[in-house]
Amino acid sequence: MAASTKMKTPYQNHIDKADFDHVYEPAEDSFLLIDALEKDLHYLKVKNPTFCLEVGSGSGVVITAFGMAFPNTFCISTDINFKACEMSATTANYNNVLLEPVNMDLISFFVDKKFDVIIFNPPYVVTKTEECGGTDIVASWAGGVKGREVTDRLLNMIPKKLAEDGTFYLLLIEENIPNEVVEIMKIYGYKSELVIKRRVRNEHQLVLKFYK
Amino acid sequence: MKLITHNMLTSKCLKGVTTGYPLSIKATNVKVTEVDFNPEFITRIIPKLDWDVLWSAADSIGHSEGLPKTVEPKFEDDEEFLKKAHRVLLEIEVEEGHLTCPESGRQFPISKGIPNMLLTEAEVQ
Ligand SMILES: C[S@@+](CC[C@H](N)C(=O)[O-])C[C@H]1O[C@@H](n2cnc3c(N)ncnc32)[C@H](O)[C@@H]1O
């Protein structure tokens, strides 16, 4: 039996457009991340993850797409924005995926080394430090210095929370200086690989993966 | 919030807290939803959980009846056990209530099934 090599796009028509005033609306970056996971589908199927966590799940499209492709994986999501947690729950529900959203900063409340897969599409826009760190829609894009303030805090937690043989997928743009991220992760003992990249208007988006 | 999730949460990131595990649960509204039984999934998840914590959590919200206190070595062949585990792990959800840090007493509300664990800067380690 040939396993499917495609990931399905979750149904999203249940979402009231007005809710996107408060929660990040799925955009090219969201779909690039789904495409990256699809590109890595074979690798992930072999890994057969037990626990998958999406950090900052927003509308929930990415983790729901993951859950649809991996019915034997338990999916958890976090977001600093409570409304995003609610929307993630509904999106998963409409697509028959079991998802557990928790409203928290990054992954700070989880026990160590449980997650086989961690996924993050961070707030990556370069802004002033003061703009980043909120809990509303601004937190969906405002990334502070180099657009990396939120991402760098997560990088620091990965060695503790990711399972030893786990994989971490991270979306970045060129302005975030991906090479620096690769260097930081190398210091933490991780190898890295470029999974996919795409130019969207003036933005160069890419997805990196990290593993030991 | 399902009890699998509770099994994975600790408040050790709070200032002055060393273990923060397990959080205690106070539920004011527990929902039971039917979920398709997937023995393969339940079998692989059980060894990755702290069963004592799961049992006590189920007990604290009034759903430990018939649930064994320990996991037998050959649990994967015991369909009746797997069905009980399935119910406690996936079908029971705390909709409203709160979680409490065992050391600091800090409470985290659960509303619409979602635990709210946001902290103020002063609370972070
Ligand atoms: C670029 S959006 C991505 C949303 C969704 N994952 C997607 O791909 O469409 C970034 C998300 O991260 C969340 N976020 C920002 N800072 C966070 C933090 N410190 N902890 C958890 N989530 C955070 C935002 O609320 C937002 O939902």
TrEMBL record, chain A:
Entry keywords, A to Z: Methyltransferase, S-adenosyl-L-methionine, Transferase
Keyword Cell inner membrane applies: no
Signal sequence residues: none
PROSITE patterns referenced in this protein's UniProt entry, alphabetically: N6_MTASE (PS00092)
GO BP field: methylation
InterPro entries registered for this protein in UniProt: DNA_methylase_N6_adenine_CS (IPR002052), Euk-Arch_PrmC-MTase (IPR052190), PrmC-related (IPR004557), SAM-dependent_MTases_sf (IPR029063), Small_mtfrase_dom (IPR007848)
Claim: Ubl conjugation is one of the keywords in the record: no
GO molecular function, one term: methyltransferase activity
Residues annotated as domain Methyltransferase small: 48-129
One matching Pfam family: MTS
Superkingdom of source: Eukaryota
Family affiliation: Belongs to the eukaryotic/archaeal PrmC-related family.
NCBIfam families: hemK_rel_arch
Annotated protein name in UniProt: Methyltransferase N6AMT1 isoform X1
Species per Swiss-Prot/TrEMBL record: Galleria mellonella (Greater wax moth)
From TrEMBL, chain B:
TM helices/strands, residue ranges: none
SUPFAM superfamilies assigned: Trm112p-like
Pfam families per UniProt: Trm112p
Family membership noted in the UniProt record: Belongs to the TRM112 family.
Protein name according to UniProt: Multifunctional methyltransferase subunit TRM112-like protein
Gene coding for it: LOC113521362
